[in-house]
Amino acid sequence: MSGPFLGVDGGGSGTRFVLVGGDGVVLAEAAGPTTYTPTGGTALVRDVLAAGVAEVCAAAGTRPREVAHAFLGLPGYGESPDGTAPLDDVVVEVLGHDRCAADNDMVCGWAGSLAGADGVNVIAGTGSMAYGRRGDRGARVGGWGEVFGDEGSGYAVAVAGLRLFSRMADGREPAGPLLDVVRDHLDLRHDLDLVGLVHERWGADRGRVAALAPLVGRAARAGDTAARRVLQDAGGALAELVATARERLGHDPDEVVPVSWSGGLLADDVVRAALLEGLRGRGGRYEPRPPALPPVLGAALHAAALAGTPLDDAALARLRTSSTAPPERGHP
Predict the structure, then answer these.
(1) Residue from 73, 213, 228 nearest 150 by CA
(2) Against a cut of 0.70, is the pTM above it?
(3) Cα 11 from chain centroid (whole Å)
(4) Beta strands 5-9; 15-20: pairing state
(5) Residue 323: what pLDDT?
(6) How many CB atoms neighbour CB 47 within 10 A?
(7) Which residue segments constitute the domains of the chain, with CATH numbers given?
Protein backbone atom coordinates (compact mmCIF):
# COMPACT_ATOMS: atom_id res chain seq x y z
CA MET A 1 0.00 0.00 0.00
CA SER A 2 1.10 3.58 -0.59
CA GLY A 3 -0.32 4.99 2.59
CA PRO A 4 -1.56 6.70 4.55
CA PHE A 5 0.68 5.64 7.40
CA LEU A 6 -0.21 6.44 10.98
CA GLY A 7 2.46 7.28 13.51
CA VAL A 8 1.77 7.67 17.22
CA ASP A 9 4.41 8.82 19.69
CA GLY A 10 3.32 8.40 23.28
CA GLY A 11 5.25 9.95 26.12
CA GLY A 12 5.20 10.78 29.78
CA SER A 13 3.94 14.29 29.05
CA GLY A 14 1.71 13.84 26.00
CA THR A 15 0.89 11.88 22.85
CA ARG A 16 1.26 12.97 19.23
CA PHE A 17 -0.45 11.57 16.15
CA VAL A 18 0.40 12.00 12.47
CA LEU A 19 -0.80 10.68 9.12
CA VAL A 20 1.76 10.58 6.32
CA GLY A 21 1.19 9.74 2.67
CA GLY A 22 3.38 7.33 0.75
CA ASP A 23 4.88 10.38 -0.96
CA GLY A 24 6.13 11.75 2.38
CA VAL A 25 3.52 14.50 2.69
CA VAL A 26 2.17 15.07 6.19
CA LEU A 27 -1.60 14.84 5.84
CA ALA A 28 -2.65 15.72 9.38
CA GLU A 29 -1.37 15.99 12.94
CA ALA A 30 -3.03 15.86 16.35
CA ALA A 31 -2.05 15.84 20.00
CA GLY A 32 -3.44 14.39 23.21
CA PRO A 33 -2.59 13.70 26.85
CA THR A 34 -0.18 11.07 28.09
CA THR A 35 -0.56 7.35 27.39
CA TYR A 36 1.70 6.47 30.32
CA THR A 37 -0.02 3.35 31.64
CA PRO A 38 0.99 3.68 35.33
CA THR A 39 -0.90 6.98 35.34
CA GLY A 40 -4.28 5.66 34.23
CA GLY A 41 -4.03 2.08 33.03
CA THR A 42 -5.25 0.51 29.81
CA ALA A 43 -8.55 2.40 29.90
CA LEU A 44 -6.66 5.71 29.73
CA VAL A 45 -4.63 4.47 26.77
CA ARG A 46 -7.79 3.38 24.94
CA ASP A 47 -9.48 6.74 25.45
CA VAL A 48 -6.45 8.80 24.41
CA LEU A 49 -5.73 6.67 21.34
CA ALA A 50 -9.36 6.56 20.23
CA ALA A 51 -9.73 10.33 20.44
CA GLY A 52 -6.39 11.08 18.79
CA VAL A 53 -6.78 8.58 15.96
CA ALA A 54 -10.30 9.81 15.23
CA GLU A 55 -9.11 13.43 15.22
CA VAL A 56 -6.11 12.93 12.95
CA CYS A 57 -8.07 10.76 10.51
CA ALA A 58 -10.94 13.26 10.34
CA ALA A 59 -8.47 16.08 9.70
CA ALA A 60 -7.01 14.10 6.79
CA GLY A 61 -10.43 13.19 5.41
CA THR A 62 -10.02 9.47 5.99
CA ARG A 63 -11.03 6.77 8.47
CA PRO A 64 -8.98 4.51 10.75
CA ARG A 65 -9.80 1.40 8.72
CA GLU A 66 -8.29 3.07 5.63
CA VAL A 67 -4.87 3.47 7.28
CA ALA A 68 -2.40 1.31 5.35
CA HIS A 69 -0.27 0.58 8.41
CA ALA A 70 0.25 2.08 11.83
CA PHE A 71 3.03 2.10 14.37
CA LEU A 72 2.35 3.21 17.92
CA GLY A 73 5.14 3.88 20.40
CA LEU A 74 3.71 3.71 23.91
CA PRO A 75 5.50 4.52 27.18
CA GLY A 76 5.79 1.48 29.40
CA TYR A 77 5.13 -0.98 26.58
CA GLY A 78 6.95 -4.25 27.22
CA GLU A 79 7.73 -3.36 30.82
CA SER A 80 4.97 -5.39 32.48
CA PRO A 81 4.41 -9.13 31.97
CA ASP A 82 0.66 -8.62 32.02
CA GLY A 83 0.45 -5.30 30.23
CA THR A 84 1.64 -5.90 26.68
CA ALA A 85 -1.17 -8.08 25.31
CA PRO A 86 -3.93 -5.73 26.55
CA LEU A 87 -2.19 -2.79 24.87
CA ASP A 88 -1.95 -4.74 21.60
CA ASP A 89 -5.68 -5.49 21.86
CA VAL A 90 -6.46 -1.81 22.45
CA VAL A 91 -4.51 -0.79 19.35
CA VAL A 92 -6.39 -3.26 17.13
CA GLU A 93 -9.69 -2.20 18.70
CA VAL A 94 -9.06 1.49 18.06
CA LEU A 95 -7.95 1.01 14.46
CA GLY A 96 -10.46 -1.69 13.54
CA HIS A 97 -7.79 -3.82 11.83
CA ASP A 98 -4.48 -5.54 12.52
CA ARG A 99 -2.27 -3.67 10.04
CA CYS A 100 -0.41 -2.22 12.95
CA ALA A 101 2.32 -2.75 15.49
CA ALA A 102 3.05 -1.32 18.91
CA ASP A 103 6.26 -1.10 20.88
CA ASN A 104 7.93 1.12 23.43
CA ASP A 105 8.10 4.81 22.50
CA MET A 106 11.90 4.50 22.39
CA VAL A 107 11.47 3.09 18.87
CA CYS A 108 9.88 6.37 17.72
CA GLY A 109 12.90 8.31 18.94
CA TRP A 110 15.33 6.02 17.14
CA ALA A 111 13.32 5.87 13.90
CA GLY A 112 12.92 9.64 13.82
CA SER A 113 16.32 10.86 14.90
CA LEU A 114 18.24 8.47 12.63
CA ALA A 115 15.56 8.16 9.92
CA GLY A 116 15.43 4.42 10.47
CA ALA A 117 19.17 3.87 10.02
CA ASP A 118 21.46 1.85 12.27
CA GLY A 119 22.84 3.70 15.28
CA VAL A 120 21.96 4.69 18.83
CA ASN A 121 19.38 7.23 19.91
CA VAL A 122 19.33 8.56 23.46
CA ILE A 123 16.07 9.89 24.86
CA ALA A 124 15.96 12.48 27.62
CA GLY A 125 12.39 13.57 28.07
CA THR A 126 10.34 12.97 31.18
CA GLY A 127 12.29 9.71 31.47
CA SER A 128 15.50 8.54 29.84
CA MET A 129 16.86 5.58 27.93
CA ALA A 130 18.99 4.69 24.94
CA TYR A 131 17.88 2.47 22.09
CA GLY A 132 20.07 1.29 19.26
CA ARG A 133 19.74 -0.86 16.17
CA ARG A 134 22.31 -2.81 14.20
CA GLY A 135 20.65 -4.73 11.42
CA ASP A 136 17.97 -6.91 13.00
CA ARG A 137 19.50 -6.52 16.44
CA GLY A 138 18.20 -4.01 18.96
CA ALA A 139 19.44 -2.95 22.39
CA ARG A 140 17.71 -0.97 25.09
CA VAL A 141 19.54 0.56 28.05
CA GLY A 142 17.86 2.50 30.85
CA GLY A 143 14.21 3.43 31.08
CA TRP A 144 13.74 1.91 34.54
CA GLY A 145 11.41 4.65 35.77
CA GLU A 146 11.85 7.55 38.13
CA VAL A 147 11.85 5.54 41.38
CA PHE A 148 15.16 3.77 40.75
CA GLY A 149 16.26 4.83 37.28
CA ASP A 150 15.80 7.45 34.55
CA GLU A 151 19.20 9.00 35.22
CA GLY A 152 19.80 12.08 33.09
CA SER A 153 16.08 12.57 32.43
CA GLY A 154 14.00 15.71 32.69
CA TYR A 155 12.47 14.34 35.87
CA ALA A 156 15.90 13.63 37.37
CA VAL A 157 17.15 17.12 36.49
CA ALA A 158 14.02 18.72 37.93
CA VAL A 159 14.31 16.77 41.19
CA ALA A 160 18.02 17.62 41.45
CA GLY A 161 17.13 21.26 40.82
CA LEU A 162 14.44 21.26 43.51
CA ARG A 163 16.84 19.58 45.91
CA LEU A 164 19.40 22.28 45.12
CA PHE A 165 16.75 24.95 45.67
CA SER A 166 15.95 23.52 49.12
CA ARG A 167 19.61 23.49 50.08
CA MET A 168 20.05 27.09 48.94
CA ALA A 169 16.91 28.16 50.78
CA ASP A 170 18.21 26.54 53.98
CA GLY A 171 21.70 27.95 53.62
CA ARG A 172 23.27 24.51 53.18
CA GLU A 173 24.39 25.60 49.70
CA PRO A 174 25.54 29.07 48.63
CA ALA A 175 22.61 30.99 47.14
CA GLY A 176 22.60 31.21 43.37
CA PRO A 177 20.30 32.40 40.57
CA LEU A 178 18.24 29.19 40.87
CA LEU A 179 16.61 30.57 44.01
CA ASP A 180 14.93 33.48 42.25
CA VAL A 181 14.27 31.50 39.06
CA VAL A 182 12.18 28.95 40.99
CA ARG A 183 10.55 31.55 43.23
CA ASP A 184 9.48 33.69 40.29
CA HIS A 185 8.32 30.82 38.07
CA LEU A 186 6.20 29.19 40.77
CA ASP A 187 5.15 32.49 42.38
CA LEU A 188 6.24 31.32 45.82
CA ARG A 189 5.45 33.72 48.69
CA HIS A 190 7.56 31.58 51.02
CA ASP A 191 10.15 28.99 50.05
CA LEU A 192 8.40 26.23 52.01
CA ASP A 193 5.28 26.78 49.88
CA LEU A 194 7.09 24.57 47.37
CA VAL A 195 6.34 21.52 49.54
CA GLY A 196 2.58 22.05 49.46
CA LEU A 197 2.60 22.90 45.77
CA VAL A 198 4.47 19.80 44.62
CA HIS A 199 3.06 17.24 47.05
CA GLU A 200 -0.47 18.47 47.71
CA ARG A 201 -1.59 20.47 44.68
CA TRP A 202 0.34 18.45 42.10
CA GLY A 203 0.30 15.11 43.90
CA ALA A 204 4.00 14.81 42.99
CA ASP A 205 2.85 14.24 39.41
CA ARG A 206 5.75 12.94 37.33
CA GLY A 207 5.07 15.07 34.28
CA ARG A 208 4.50 18.30 36.20
CA VAL A 209 7.70 17.82 38.16
CA ALA A 210 9.69 17.02 35.01
CA ALA A 211 8.37 20.18 33.36
CA LEU A 212 10.45 22.18 35.86
CA ALA A 213 13.72 20.96 34.32
CA PRO A 214 14.08 24.04 32.07
CA LEU A 215 14.36 26.17 35.22
CA VAL A 216 17.70 24.52 35.94
CA GLY A 217 18.89 25.49 32.48
CA ARG A 218 17.64 29.04 32.95
CA ALA A 219 19.58 29.32 36.21
CA ALA A 220 22.71 27.86 34.61
CA ARG A 221 22.57 30.45 31.83
CA ALA A 222 22.27 33.13 34.54
CA GLY A 223 25.59 31.99 35.98
CA ASP A 224 24.52 29.41 38.56
CA THR A 225 27.46 27.00 38.65
CA ALA A 226 25.66 24.45 40.83
CA ALA A 227 22.74 24.32 38.39
CA ARG A 228 25.21 23.92 35.54
CA ARG A 229 26.73 20.90 37.31
CA VAL A 230 23.28 19.31 37.48
CA LEU A 231 22.99 19.60 33.70
CA GLN A 232 26.51 18.33 33.13
CA ASP A 233 25.87 15.34 35.37
CA ALA A 234 22.75 14.58 33.34
CA GLY A 235 24.73 14.65 30.10
CA GLY A 236 27.30 12.30 31.60
CA ALA A 237 24.58 9.85 32.64
CA LEU A 238 23.15 9.91 29.12
CA ALA A 239 26.60 9.21 27.66
CA GLU A 240 26.76 6.09 29.82
CA LEU A 241 23.47 4.89 28.33
CA VAL A 242 24.74 5.38 24.77
CA ALA A 243 28.10 3.72 25.40
CA THR A 244 26.43 0.72 27.02
CA ALA A 245 23.99 0.35 24.11
CA ARG A 246 26.96 0.39 21.74
CA GLU A 247 28.61 -2.42 23.70
CA ARG A 248 25.44 -4.51 23.72
CA LEU A 249 25.10 -4.14 19.95
CA GLY A 250 28.57 -5.66 19.58
CA HIS A 251 30.33 -2.81 17.79
CA ASP A 252 34.10 -3.00 17.50
CA PRO A 253 36.06 -0.10 19.06
CA ASP A 254 37.10 1.22 15.64
CA GLU A 255 33.57 1.23 14.19
CA VAL A 256 31.93 4.63 13.79
CA VAL A 257 28.48 4.49 15.39
CA PRO A 258 25.91 7.17 14.52
CA VAL A 259 24.34 8.69 17.62
CA SER A 260 21.41 11.05 17.84
CA TRP A 261 19.01 12.28 20.48
CA SER A 262 15.40 13.12 21.22
CA GLY A 263 13.44 14.58 24.12
CA GLY A 264 13.18 18.12 25.39
CA LEU A 265 16.09 18.00 27.84
CA LEU A 266 18.60 17.50 25.03
CA ALA A 267 17.53 20.78 23.49
CA ASP A 268 19.69 22.29 26.26
CA ASP A 269 23.17 23.08 24.93
CA VAL A 270 24.88 22.28 28.24
CA VAL A 271 23.32 18.82 28.49
CA ARG A 272 24.05 18.02 24.85
CA ALA A 273 27.66 19.20 25.13
CA ALA A 274 28.15 17.09 28.27
CA LEU A 275 26.69 14.07 26.45
CA LEU A 276 29.13 14.41 23.56
CA GLU A 277 32.06 15.10 25.88
CA GLY A 278 31.14 12.05 27.90
CA LEU A 279 31.18 9.90 24.78
CA ARG A 280 34.62 11.17 23.83
CA GLY A 281 35.88 10.07 27.23
CA ARG A 282 34.48 6.55 26.96
CA GLY A 283 36.38 5.26 23.94
CA GLY A 284 34.87 4.13 20.69
CA ARG A 285 34.09 6.31 17.72
CA TYR A 286 30.80 8.13 17.28
CA GLU A 287 29.20 10.27 14.60
CA PRO A 288 26.83 12.76 16.27
CA ARG A 289 23.80 13.46 14.08
CA PRO A 290 21.20 16.11 14.87
CA PRO A 291 17.73 14.54 14.81
CA ALA A 292 16.48 14.01 11.26
CA LEU A 293 12.80 13.88 12.25
CA PRO A 294 10.72 14.26 15.41
CA PRO A 295 9.70 10.98 17.05
CA VAL A 296 6.11 11.10 15.80
CA LEU A 297 7.31 11.23 12.18
CA GLY A 298 9.74 8.46 13.04
CA ALA A 299 6.72 6.38 14.04
CA ALA A 300 5.06 6.97 10.66
CA LEU A 301 8.33 6.23 8.85
CA HIS A 302 8.63 2.97 10.80
CA ALA A 303 5.01 2.09 9.96
CA ALA A 304 5.81 2.37 6.26
CA ALA A 305 8.86 0.14 6.68
CA LEU A 306 6.87 -2.46 8.61
CA ALA A 307 4.29 -2.47 5.82
CA GLY A 308 7.01 -3.46 3.36
CA THR A 309 6.69 -0.14 1.53
CA PRO A 310 9.44 2.05 3.02
CA LEU A 311 9.52 5.67 1.93
CA ASP A 312 11.97 6.29 -0.88
CA ASP A 313 14.62 9.01 -0.77
CA ALA A 314 12.38 11.62 -2.38
CA ALA A 315 9.53 10.91 0.03
CA LEU A 316 11.91 11.00 2.99
CA ALA A 317 13.28 14.36 1.86
CA ARG A 318 9.72 15.66 1.54
CA LEU A 319 8.86 14.36 4.99
CA ARG A 320 11.77 16.30 6.48
CA THR A 321 10.39 19.58 5.17
CA SER A 322 6.61 19.13 5.21
CA SER A 323 5.90 19.21 8.94
CA THR A 324 5.83 22.18 11.25
CA ALA A 325 6.47 19.90 14.24
CA PRO A 326 9.69 20.72 16.13
CA PRO A 327 12.48 18.12 16.01
CA GLU A 328 12.22 17.65 19.78
CA ARG A 329 9.51 17.99 22.38
CA GLY A 330 9.26 21.46 23.82
CA HIS A 331 9.63 20.26 27.41
CA PRO A 332 10.79 17.03 28.98
Answers:
(1) 213
(2) yes
(3) 6
(4) antiparallel
(5) 55
(6) 16
(7) 5-115+293-322 (3.30.420.40), 117-291 (3.30.420.40)
